[in-house]
Design a protein that fits this description.
The structure is a homodimer.
Chain A lengths: L2 E3 L2 E2 L2 E3 L3 H5 L2 E9 L2 E2 L2 H15 L5 H15 L2 E8 L16 E7 L6 H6 L1 E5 L19 H7 L7 E7 L5 E4 L3 E6 L2 E5 L9 H12 L4 E4 L3 H5 L3 E6 L3 E8 L2 E2 L4 H15 L1
Parallel strand pairs in A: 8-9, 8-15, 12-13
Antiparallel strand pairs in A: 1-2, 1-7, 4-5, 4-6, 6-7, 9-10, 11-12, 11-14, 14-15, 15-16
Protein backbone atom coordinates (compact mmCIF):
# COMPACT_ATOMS: atom_id res chain seq x y z
CA UNK A 1 0.00 0.00 0.00
CA UNK A 2 1.23 3.48 -0.87
CA UNK A 3 1.30 5.41 2.40
CA UNK A 4 2.83 8.75 3.37
CA UNK A 5 2.96 10.47 6.72
CA UNK A 6 3.85 14.16 6.77
CA UNK A 7 5.12 13.93 3.23
CA UNK A 8 7.33 10.86 3.63
CA UNK A 9 6.70 7.18 2.80
CA UNK A 10 5.65 5.57 6.10
CA UNK A 11 3.00 3.11 7.23
CA UNK A 12 3.35 3.48 10.98
CA UNK A 13 1.97 6.25 13.14
CA UNK A 14 2.76 7.45 16.67
CA UNK A 15 0.30 5.96 19.20
CA UNK A 16 0.14 9.45 20.71
CA UNK A 17 -1.71 10.81 17.68
CA UNK A 18 -4.95 12.52 18.68
CA UNK A 19 -6.64 11.09 15.61
CA UNK A 20 -6.46 7.73 17.37
CA UNK A 21 -7.13 9.03 20.89
CA UNK A 22 -10.19 11.16 20.11
CA UNK A 23 -10.91 11.00 16.39
CA UNK A 24 -9.52 14.52 16.49
CA UNK A 25 -9.21 15.18 12.79
CA UNK A 26 -10.77 15.10 9.34
CA UNK A 27 -10.48 13.09 6.15
CA UNK A 28 -11.08 13.27 2.42
CA UNK A 29 -11.53 10.36 0.03
CA UNK A 30 -10.36 11.47 -3.40
CA UNK A 31 -10.60 9.79 -6.78
CA UNK A 32 -7.31 9.99 -8.69
CA UNK A 33 -7.15 9.67 -12.48
CA UNK A 34 -3.83 9.49 -14.32
CA UNK A 35 -2.11 11.12 -11.38
CA UNK A 36 -4.64 13.95 -11.02
CA UNK A 37 -6.98 14.29 -7.99
CA UNK A 38 -10.61 14.75 -9.10
CA UNK A 39 -12.55 17.70 -7.64
CA UNK A 40 -9.35 18.85 -5.94
CA UNK A 41 -10.54 22.38 -5.17
CA UNK A 42 -13.74 21.17 -3.54
CA UNK A 43 -11.84 18.66 -1.39
CA UNK A 44 -9.35 21.34 -0.31
CA UNK A 45 -12.14 23.82 0.43
CA UNK A 46 -14.04 21.34 2.61
CA UNK A 47 -10.88 20.29 4.44
CA UNK A 48 -9.94 23.92 5.07
CA UNK A 49 -13.42 24.76 6.35
CA UNK A 50 -13.39 21.72 8.65
CA UNK A 51 -9.97 22.61 10.06
CA UNK A 52 -11.18 26.16 10.75
CA UNK A 53 -14.20 24.82 12.65
CA UNK A 54 -12.08 22.35 14.67
CA UNK A 55 -9.37 24.98 15.27
CA UNK A 56 -6.74 22.82 13.53
CA UNK A 57 -4.04 25.11 12.18
CA UNK A 58 -3.36 23.33 8.88
CA UNK A 59 -1.19 24.76 6.10
CA UNK A 60 -3.34 23.94 3.07
CA UNK A 61 -0.51 24.81 0.66
CA UNK A 62 1.61 22.01 2.11
CA UNK A 63 -1.26 19.51 2.04
CA UNK A 64 -2.13 20.36 -1.55
CA UNK A 65 1.48 19.92 -2.68
CA UNK A 66 1.73 16.57 -0.87
CA UNK A 67 -1.57 15.38 -2.32
CA UNK A 68 -0.51 16.32 -5.85
CA UNK A 69 2.84 14.53 -5.51
CA UNK A 70 1.15 11.50 -3.91
CA UNK A 71 -1.43 11.36 -6.71
CA UNK A 72 1.26 11.43 -9.37
CA UNK A 73 2.89 8.43 -7.72
CA UNK A 74 -0.46 6.64 -7.29
CA UNK A 75 -1.52 7.06 -10.90
CA UNK A 76 -5.07 5.71 -10.86
CA UNK A 77 -6.96 4.88 -7.70
CA UNK A 78 -8.21 6.47 -4.52
CA UNK A 79 -6.23 8.75 -2.23
CA UNK A 80 -7.42 8.92 1.34
CA UNK A 81 -6.13 12.01 3.11
CA UNK A 82 -6.38 12.13 6.90
CA UNK A 83 -5.46 15.27 8.82
CA UNK A 84 -5.21 15.02 12.61
CA UNK A 85 -4.39 17.63 15.22
CA UNK A 86 -1.08 15.82 15.73
CA UNK A 87 0.41 14.19 18.81
CA UNK A 88 -1.29 14.66 22.13
CA UNK A 89 0.21 15.26 25.51
CA UNK A 90 -2.53 14.53 28.02
CA UNK A 91 -6.23 15.16 28.08
CA UNK A 92 -8.67 16.75 25.69
CA UNK A 93 -7.18 20.27 25.63
CA UNK A 94 -5.75 20.90 22.15
CA UNK A 95 -1.98 21.24 22.64
CA UNK A 96 -0.36 24.44 21.47
CA UNK A 97 2.52 24.48 19.01
CA UNK A 98 1.81 21.00 17.71
CA UNK A 99 1.86 20.55 13.96
CA UNK A 100 -1.18 18.85 12.42
CA UNK A 101 -0.32 15.47 10.92
CA UNK A 102 -1.03 14.60 7.26
CA UNK A 103 -1.59 10.97 6.37
CA UNK A 104 -2.06 9.81 2.77
CA UNK A 105 -3.12 6.29 1.89
CA UNK A 106 -3.45 5.03 -1.66
CA UNK A 107 -5.65 2.23 -2.95
CA UNK A 108 -7.36 0.93 -6.03
CA UNK A 109 -10.81 2.18 -6.99
CA UNK A 110 -13.56 0.11 -5.38
CA UNK A 111 -15.05 -2.46 -7.77
CA UNK A 112 -18.76 -1.74 -7.40
CA UNK A 113 -21.19 -3.82 -9.49
CA UNK A 114 -21.91 -2.05 -12.79
CA UNK A 115 -25.64 -2.58 -12.24
CA UNK A 116 -25.58 -0.16 -9.28
CA UNK A 117 -25.15 2.72 -11.70
CA UNK A 118 -27.16 1.21 -14.55
CA UNK A 119 -30.23 -0.25 -12.86
CA UNK A 120 -30.06 1.51 -9.50
CA UNK A 121 -29.67 0.24 -5.96
CA UNK A 122 -31.85 -0.95 -3.13
CA UNK A 123 -31.52 1.00 0.15
CA UNK A 124 -31.31 -0.78 3.48
CA UNK A 125 -33.41 1.01 6.12
CA UNK A 126 -30.83 1.58 8.88
CA UNK A 127 -32.10 1.57 12.45
CA UNK A 128 -29.01 3.56 13.50
CA UNK A 129 -30.00 7.22 13.61
CA UNK A 130 -27.72 10.23 13.26
CA UNK A 131 -27.45 12.39 16.39
CA UNK A 132 -28.09 16.09 15.91
CA UNK A 133 -24.90 18.02 16.61
CA UNK A 134 -24.68 21.32 14.69
CA UNK A 135 -21.08 21.86 15.87
CA UNK A 136 -19.92 18.81 13.93
CA UNK A 137 -22.52 18.66 11.15
CA UNK A 138 -21.35 18.74 7.54
CA UNK A 139 -17.71 17.94 8.31
CA UNK A 140 -16.00 14.73 7.25
CA UNK A 141 -14.41 14.30 10.68
CA UNK A 142 -12.97 11.13 12.18
CA UNK A 143 -15.83 10.45 14.64
CA UNK A 144 -17.65 7.90 12.53
CA UNK A 145 -19.05 5.30 14.93
CA UNK A 146 -22.59 6.01 13.75
CA UNK A 147 -21.60 5.01 10.21
CA UNK A 148 -19.79 1.92 11.49
CA UNK A 149 -22.88 0.79 13.40
CA UNK A 150 -25.19 1.57 10.48
CA UNK A 151 -23.02 -0.29 7.97
CA UNK A 152 -22.89 -3.31 10.31
CA UNK A 153 -26.68 -3.64 10.11
CA UNK A 154 -26.69 -5.51 6.80
CA UNK A 155 -24.36 -8.02 5.16
CA UNK A 156 -26.30 -9.11 2.09
CA UNK A 157 -25.18 -7.89 -1.34
CA UNK A 158 -28.76 -7.02 -2.28
CA UNK A 159 -28.47 -3.67 -0.50
CA UNK A 160 -25.70 -1.45 -1.87
CA UNK A 161 -26.32 1.35 0.60
CA UNK A 162 -28.27 2.19 3.73
CA UNK A 163 -30.63 5.07 4.40
CA UNK A 164 -29.89 7.07 7.56
CA UNK A 165 -32.41 9.27 9.34
CA UNK A 166 -31.63 11.67 12.17
CA UNK A 167 -32.92 11.07 15.68
CA UNK A 168 -35.98 13.21 14.84
CA UNK A 169 -36.82 11.01 11.85
CA UNK A 170 -35.70 13.31 9.03
CA UNK A 171 -34.07 11.77 5.97
CA UNK A 172 -30.36 12.72 5.95
CA UNK A 173 -28.06 10.61 3.76
CA UNK A 174 -26.66 7.20 2.92
CA UNK A 175 -23.97 5.62 5.09
CA UNK A 176 -21.26 6.68 2.62
CA UNK A 177 -23.25 8.78 0.16
CA UNK A 178 -25.39 11.88 -0.06
CA UNK A 179 -29.00 11.66 -1.12
CA UNK A 180 -30.97 13.65 -3.68
CA UNK A 181 -34.54 13.50 -4.84
CA UNK A 182 -36.45 15.09 -7.71
CA UNK A 183 -40.08 16.15 -7.63
CA UNK A 184 -41.83 18.04 -10.43
CA UNK A 185 -38.49 18.89 -12.01
CA UNK A 186 -37.01 20.38 -8.82
CA UNK A 187 -33.91 18.85 -7.20
CA UNK A 188 -33.96 18.44 -3.41
CA UNK A 189 -31.27 17.36 -0.98
CA UNK A 190 -31.37 17.33 2.85
CA UNK A 191 -30.05 20.31 4.76
CA UNK A 192 -27.00 19.13 6.72
CA UNK A 193 -26.72 21.75 9.46
CA UNK A 194 -27.74 19.32 12.24
CA UNK A 195 -25.89 16.19 11.08
CA UNK A 196 -24.52 14.46 8.01
CA UNK A 197 -21.47 14.83 5.82
CA UNK A 198 -21.61 17.51 3.13
CA UNK A 199 -20.01 15.61 0.25
CA UNK A 200 -17.96 17.24 -2.46
CA UNK A 201 -19.98 15.46 -5.17
CA UNK A 202 -23.16 16.81 -3.57
CA UNK A 203 -21.74 20.34 -3.75
CA UNK A 204 -20.61 19.82 -7.33
CA UNK A 205 -23.99 18.43 -8.44
CA UNK A 206 -25.87 21.34 -6.83
CA UNK A 207 -23.63 23.77 -8.70
CA UNK A 208 -23.90 21.87 -12.01
CA UNK A 209 -27.69 21.50 -11.76
CA UNK A 210 -28.13 25.22 -11.14
CA UNK A 211 -25.87 26.02 -14.08
CA UNK A 212 -28.21 23.91 -16.25
CA UNK A 213 -31.22 25.84 -14.99
CA UNK A 214 -32.51 23.11 -12.65
CA UNK A 215 -34.07 24.57 -9.51
CA UNK A 216 -32.34 23.18 -6.38
CA UNK A 217 -33.59 23.25 -2.81
CA UNK A 218 -31.55 22.31 0.26
CA UNK A 219 -34.07 21.67 3.03
CA UNK A 220 -35.44 19.29 5.64
CA UNK A 221 -36.95 16.19 4.07
CA UNK A 222 -39.20 13.68 5.80
CA UNK A 223 -39.72 10.04 4.93
CA UNK A 224 -43.00 11.04 3.23
CA UNK A 225 -41.14 13.48 1.02
CA UNK A 226 -38.73 10.74 0.02
CA UNK A 227 -41.50 8.27 -0.80
CA UNK A 228 -43.38 10.86 -2.88
CA UNK A 229 -40.32 11.73 -4.98
CA UNK A 230 -40.34 11.11 -8.73
CA UNK A 231 -36.66 10.17 -8.73
CA UNK A 232 -34.17 9.38 -5.98
CA UNK A 233 -30.42 9.02 -6.27
CA UNK A 234 -27.23 8.74 -4.21
CA UNK A 235 -23.87 10.30 -4.94
CA UNK A 236 -20.31 10.31 -3.71
CA UNK A 237 -16.91 11.30 -5.02
CA UNK A 238 -15.87 7.76 -5.97
CA UNK A 239 -18.82 6.21 -7.80
CA UNK A 240 -20.59 9.37 -9.00
CA UNK A 241 -24.35 8.69 -9.03
CA UNK A 242 -26.38 5.59 -8.30
CA UNK A 243 -30.12 5.77 -8.92
CA UNK A 244 -32.19 4.43 -6.03
CA UNK A 245 -34.80 1.94 -7.19
CA UNK A 246 -36.17 0.60 -3.91
CA UNK A 247 -36.51 1.07 -0.19
CA UNK A 248 -38.25 -1.95 1.33
CA UNK A 249 -41.49 -2.30 -0.68
CA UNK A 250 -41.38 1.16 -2.18
CA UNK A 251 -40.01 1.47 -5.70
CA UNK A 252 -38.86 4.33 -7.90
CA UNK A 253 -38.00 4.29 -11.57
CA UNK A 254 -34.81 5.85 -12.84
CA UNK A 255 -35.69 9.26 -14.27
CA UNK A 256 -34.25 11.74 -16.75
CA UNK A 257 -32.79 14.23 -14.23
CA UNK A 258 -30.91 11.39 -12.52
CA UNK A 259 -29.50 10.21 -15.86
CA UNK A 260 -28.50 13.72 -16.89
CA UNK A 261 -26.62 14.38 -13.64
CA UNK A 262 -25.17 10.88 -13.73
CA UNK A 263 -23.62 11.62 -17.11
CA UNK A 264 -22.12 14.82 -15.69
CA UNK A 265 -20.69 12.98 -12.66
CA UNK A 266 -19.32 10.27 -14.97
CA UNK A 267 -17.54 12.88 -17.06
CA UNK A 268 -16.01 14.42 -13.96
CA UNK A 269 -14.79 11.08 -12.61
CA UNK A 270 -13.52 9.69 -15.93
CA UNK A 271 -11.74 12.79 -17.19
CA UNK B 1 6.95 6.57 27.38
CA UNK B 2 5.97 3.00 28.20
CA UNK B 3 3.87 1.80 25.29
CA UNK B 4 2.68 -1.65 24.25
CA UNK B 5 0.73 -2.74 21.21
CA UNK B 6 -0.88 -6.18 21.28
CA UNK B 7 1.24 -7.14 24.27
CA UNK B 8 4.61 -6.05 22.91
CA UNK B 9 6.63 -2.86 23.50
CA UNK B 10 5.89 -0.62 20.51
CA UNK B 11 5.12 3.05 19.95
CA UNK B 12 4.06 2.92 16.32
CA UNK B 13 0.71 1.83 14.96
CA UNK B 14 -0.47 0.78 11.49
CA UNK B 15 -2.10 3.70 9.66
CA UNK B 16 -4.79 1.21 8.62
CA UNK B 17 -6.11 0.98 12.19
CA UNK B 18 -9.83 1.72 12.37
CA UNK B 19 -9.28 3.56 15.64
CA UNK B 20 -7.62 6.26 13.57
CA UNK B 21 -9.94 6.02 10.55
CA UNK B 22 -13.27 6.14 12.39
CA UNK B 23 -12.62 6.35 16.13
CA UNK B 24 -13.77 2.72 15.99
CA UNK B 25 -12.87 1.63 19.50
CA UNK B 26 -12.95 2.30 23.22
CA UNK B 27 -10.57 3.35 25.96
CA UNK B 28 -10.02 3.20 29.71
CA UNK B 29 -7.87 5.52 31.80
CA UNK B 30 -6.70 3.57 34.83
CA UNK B 31 -4.86 4.69 37.95
CA UNK B 32 -2.02 2.32 38.82
CA UNK B 33 -0.60 2.09 42.34
CA UNK B 34 2.49 0.00 43.12
CA UNK B 35 1.91 -2.03 39.98
CA UNK B 36 -1.81 -2.66 40.66
CA UNK B 37 -4.60 -1.18 38.51
CA UNK B 38 -7.23 0.55 40.66
CA UNK B 39 -10.89 -0.40 40.14
CA UNK B 40 -9.75 -3.09 37.71
CA UNK B 41 -13.01 -5.04 37.69
CA UNK B 42 -15.09 -1.97 36.94
CA UNK B 43 -12.77 -0.95 34.10
CA UNK B 44 -12.90 -4.46 32.61
CA UNK B 45 -16.69 -4.61 32.97
CA UNK B 46 -17.20 -1.29 31.22
CA UNK B 47 -14.77 -2.21 28.43
CA UNK B 48 -16.49 -5.55 27.94
CA UNK B 49 -19.93 -3.95 27.82
CA UNK B 50 -18.73 -1.35 25.32
CA UNK B 51 -17.17 -4.01 23.07
CA UNK B 52 -20.43 -5.96 23.14
CA UNK B 53 -22.39 -2.87 22.07
CA UNK B 54 -19.93 -2.03 19.29
CA UNK B 55 -19.72 -5.68 18.18
CA UNK B 56 -15.95 -5.79 18.85
CA UNK B 57 -14.97 -9.37 19.57
CA UNK B 58 -12.42 -8.75 22.33
CA UNK B 59 -10.89 -11.48 24.49
CA UNK B 60 -11.08 -9.83 27.92
CA UNK B 61 -8.83 -12.49 29.46
CA UNK B 62 -5.97 -11.44 27.19
CA UNK B 63 -6.53 -7.74 27.84
CA UNK B 64 -6.63 -8.24 31.59
CA UNK B 65 -3.40 -10.22 31.57
CA UNK B 66 -1.69 -7.57 29.43
CA UNK B 67 -2.95 -4.75 31.65
CA UNK B 68 -1.72 -6.51 34.79
CA UNK B 69 1.74 -7.12 33.31
CA UNK B 70 1.90 -3.56 31.97
CA UNK B 71 0.89 -2.13 35.36
CA UNK B 72 3.60 -4.12 37.12
CA UNK B 73 6.15 -2.60 34.76
CA UNK B 74 4.66 0.89 35.14
CA UNK B 75 4.68 0.83 38.95
CA UNK B 76 2.89 4.09 39.79
CA UNK B 77 1.08 6.20 37.26
CA UNK B 78 -1.74 6.07 34.75
CA UNK B 79 -2.34 3.31 32.22
CA UNK B 80 -4.37 4.26 29.20
CA UNK B 81 -5.83 1.24 27.46
CA UNK B 82 -7.20 1.68 23.94
CA UNK B 83 -9.00 -1.14 22.16
CA UNK B 84 -9.77 -0.71 18.47
CA UNK B 85 -11.54 -2.98 16.02
CA UNK B 86 -8.15 -3.53 14.37
CA UNK B 87 -6.94 -2.85 10.85
CA UNK B 88 -9.45 -1.83 8.23
CA UNK B 89 -9.71 -2.88 4.66
CA UNK B 90 -11.99 -0.36 2.99
CA UNK B 91 -15.14 1.42 4.07
CA UNK B 92 -17.21 1.41 7.23
CA UNK B 93 -18.26 -2.27 7.21
CA UNK B 94 -16.57 -4.00 10.17
CA UNK B 95 -14.15 -6.52 8.64
CA UNK B 96 -14.57 -10.16 9.57
CA UNK B 97 -11.77 -12.18 11.09
CA UNK B 98 -9.77 -9.15 12.18
CA UNK B 99 -8.35 -9.23 15.69
CA UNK B 100 -9.10 -6.20 17.86
CA UNK B 101 -5.96 -4.22 18.69
CA UNK B 102 -4.88 -3.49 22.29
CA UNK B 103 -2.80 -0.40 22.93
CA UNK B 104 -1.39 0.43 26.36
CA UNK B 105 0.24 3.75 27.16
CA UNK B 106 1.82 4.58 30.51
CA UNK B 107 2.28 7.98 32.08
CA UNK B 108 2.73 9.73 35.38
CA UNK B 109 -0.29 10.76 37.43
CA UNK B 110 -1.53 14.24 36.49
CA UNK B 111 -0.33 16.91 38.94
CA UNK B 112 -3.61 18.66 39.75
CA UNK B 113 -3.51 21.56 42.23
CA UNK B 114 -4.17 20.29 45.77
CA UNK B 115 -6.74 23.04 46.29
CA UNK B 116 -9.04 21.41 43.68
CA UNK B 117 -9.78 18.64 46.16
CA UNK B 118 -9.52 20.75 49.31
CA UNK B 119 -11.37 23.95 48.42
CA UNK B 120 -13.31 22.82 45.37
CA UNK B 121 -13.27 23.93 41.76
CA UNK B 122 -14.97 26.50 39.59
CA UNK B 123 -16.87 25.11 36.57
CA UNK B 124 -16.59 26.72 33.16
CA UNK B 125 -20.01 26.87 31.44
CA UNK B 126 -19.27 25.13 28.13
CA UNK B 127 -21.24 26.28 25.10
CA UNK B 128 -20.51 22.94 23.41
CA UNK B 129 -23.51 20.68 23.96
CA UNK B 130 -23.57 16.90 23.94
CA UNK B 131 -25.61 15.36 21.11
CA UNK B 132 -28.22 12.81 22.14
CA UNK B 133 -27.26 9.41 20.75
CA UNK B 134 -28.54 6.50 22.84
CA UNK B 135 -26.59 3.99 20.72
CA UNK B 136 -23.29 5.46 21.92
CA UNK B 137 -24.29 6.89 25.30
CA UNK B 138 -22.42 5.75 28.40
CA UNK B 139 -19.50 4.22 26.52
CA UNK B 140 -15.96 5.58 26.68
CA UNK B 141 -15.53 5.29 22.93
CA UNK B 142 -12.97 7.04 20.75
CA UNK B 143 -15.38 9.58 19.18
CA UNK B 144 -14.54 12.48 21.47
CA UNK B 145 -14.67 15.62 19.31
CA UNK B 146 -17.35 17.11 21.55
CA UNK B 147 -14.98 16.92 24.52
CA UNK B 148 -12.13 18.38 22.45
CA UNK B 149 -14.27 21.35 21.41
CA UNK B 150 -15.59 21.85 24.95
CA UNK B 151 -12.11 21.73 26.52
CA UNK B 152 -10.86 24.25 23.94
CA UNK B 153 -13.39 26.80 25.21
CA UNK B 154 -11.27 27.94 28.15
CA UNK B 155 -7.54 28.31 28.78
CA UNK B 156 -7.41 30.05 32.17
CA UNK B 157 -6.34 28.04 35.22
CA UNK B 158 -9.23 29.46 37.24
CA UNK B 159 -11.59 26.83 35.82
CA UNK B 160 -10.51 23.26 36.55
CA UNK B 161 -13.39 21.68 34.66
CA UNK B 162 -16.26 22.56 32.35
CA UNK B 163 -19.95 21.81 32.67
CA UNK B 164 -21.55 20.12 29.68
CA UNK B 165 -25.27 20.12 28.94
CA UNK B 166 -27.00 18.06 26.28
CA UNK B 167 -28.61 19.67 23.24
CA UNK B 168 -31.93 19.78 25.16
CA UNK B 169 -30.32 21.72 28.02
CA UNK B 170 -30.08 18.94 30.62
CA UNK B 171 -27.04 18.82 32.91
CA UNK B 172 -24.90 15.81 31.93
CA UNK B 173 -21.27 15.83 33.10
CA UNK B 174 -17.90 17.55 33.15
CA UNK B 175 -15.60 17.38 30.13
CA UNK B 176 -13.53 14.64 31.81
CA UNK B 177 -15.58 13.94 34.96
CA UNK B 178 -18.97 12.80 36.10
CA UNK B 179 -21.20 15.08 38.14
CA UNK B 180 -23.10 14.46 41.35
CA UNK B 181 -25.31 16.65 43.49
CA UNK B 182 -26.84 16.28 46.94
CA UNK B 183 -30.18 17.69 48.03
CA UNK B 184 -31.79 16.99 51.40
CA UNK B 185 -29.38 14.12 52.01
CA UNK B 186 -30.15 12.37 48.70
CA UNK B 187 -27.41 11.83 46.10
CA UNK B 188 -28.31 12.56 42.47
CA UNK B 189 -26.39 12.01 39.25
CA UNK B 190 -27.55 12.50 35.65
CA UNK B 191 -28.98 9.55 33.74
CA UNK B 192 -26.58 8.81 30.86
CA UNK B 193 -28.79 6.88 28.45
CA UNK B 194 -28.85 9.68 25.86
CA UNK B 195 -25.24 10.89 26.09
CA UNK B 196 -22.27 11.09 28.43
CA UNK B 197 -19.61 8.70 29.67
CA UNK B 198 -20.57 6.40 32.54
CA UNK B 199 -17.40 6.63 34.61
CA UNK B 200 -16.09 3.79 36.76
CA UNK B 201 -15.69 6.15 39.74
CA UNK B 202 -19.33 7.23 39.29
CA UNK B 203 -20.40 3.56 39.41
CA UNK B 204 -18.20 2.91 42.44
CA UNK B 205 -19.50 5.93 44.33
CA UNK B 206 -23.13 4.98 43.64
CA UNK B 207 -22.43 1.51 45.02
CA UNK B 208 -20.52 2.84 48.04
CA UNK B 209 -23.13 5.48 48.88
CA UNK B 210 -25.91 2.89 48.81
CA UNK B 211 -23.90 0.59 51.04
CA UNK B 212 -23.69 3.46 53.55
CA UNK B 213 -27.46 3.90 53.42
CA UNK B 214 -27.41 7.06 51.30
CA UNK B 215 -30.37 7.21 48.93
CA UNK B 216 -29.17 7.56 45.31
CA UNK B 217 -31.16 8.65 42.28
CA UNK B 218 -29.99 8.45 38.68
CA UNK B 219 -32.25 10.78 36.70
CA UNK B 220 -32.57 13.75 34.38
CA UNK B 221 -31.32 16.94 36.00
CA UNK B 222 -31.95 20.47 34.75
CA UNK B 223 -29.85 23.54 35.35
CA UNK B 224 -32.37 24.59 38.02
CA UNK B 225 -31.85 21.31 39.85
CA UNK B 226 -28.11 21.89 39.81
CA UNK B 227 -28.39 25.44 41.15
CA UNK B 228 -30.75 24.34 43.93
CA UNK B 229 -28.42 21.56 45.14
CA UNK B 230 -26.95 21.67 48.65
CA UNK B 231 -23.68 20.16 47.47
CA UNK B 232 -22.16 19.53 44.04
CA UNK B 233 -19.10 17.48 43.18
CA UNK B 234 -17.20 15.97 40.27
CA UNK B 235 -15.46 12.61 40.13
CA UNK B 236 -13.22 10.54 37.92
CA UNK B 237 -10.94 7.56 38.29
CA UNK B 238 -7.72 9.59 38.53
CA UNK B 239 -8.42 12.43 40.96
CA UNK B 240 -11.29 10.91 42.95
CA UNK B 241 -13.63 13.73 43.99
CA UNK B 242 -13.45 17.49 43.57
CA UNK B 243 -16.12 19.57 45.28
CA UNK B 244 -17.67 22.19 43.00
CA UNK B 245 -17.72 25.62 44.61
CA UNK B 246 -18.85 27.85 41.76
CA UNK B 247 -20.48 28.08 38.35
CA UNK B 248 -20.36 31.66 37.10
CA UNK B 249 -21.93 33.72 39.94
CA UNK B 250 -23.54 30.78 41.68
CA UNK B 251 -21.68 29.35 44.66
CA UNK B 252 -21.95 26.18 46.71
CA UNK B 253 -20.23 25.30 49.95
CA UNK B 254 -18.47 21.99 50.40
CA UNK B 255 -20.79 19.69 52.34
CA UNK B 256 -20.54 16.61 54.54
CA UNK B 257 -21.71 14.04 52.00
CA UNK B 258 -19.10 15.28 49.52
CA UNK B 259 -16.37 15.00 52.16
CA UNK B 260 -17.48 11.54 53.21
CA UNK B 261 -17.46 10.20 49.63
CA UNK B 262 -14.21 12.04 48.93
CA UNK B 263 -12.54 10.15 51.76
CA UNK B 264 -13.81 6.87 50.32
CA UNK B 265 -12.51 7.76 46.84
CA UNK B 266 -9.18 8.79 48.34
CA UNK B 267 -8.86 5.45 50.09
CA UNK B 268 -9.58 3.62 46.84
CA UNK B 269 -7.03 5.62 44.86
CA UNK B 270 -4.30 5.59 47.49
CA UNK B 271 -4.53 1.97 48.50
Amino acid sequence: MLSWIDGRPMELLSVKDRGLAYGDGLFETIAVNAGIPVLLERHMARLGAGCARLLIDLDLTVVRAELLAFSRELGDGVAKLIVTRGDGVRGYAPPKAVAPRRILQGGTKPAYPVCNAELGVRLFPCATRLAEQPLLAGMKHLNRLEQVLARAEWQDAEHAEGLMLDTSGRVVEGVYSNLFLCRDGVLFTPDLFRCGVAGVMRAELLAQAESYGVRCEVRDIGLDGLLQADEVFLCNSLYGIWPVRALQRHQWSVGPLTRKLQAIACDLLDS
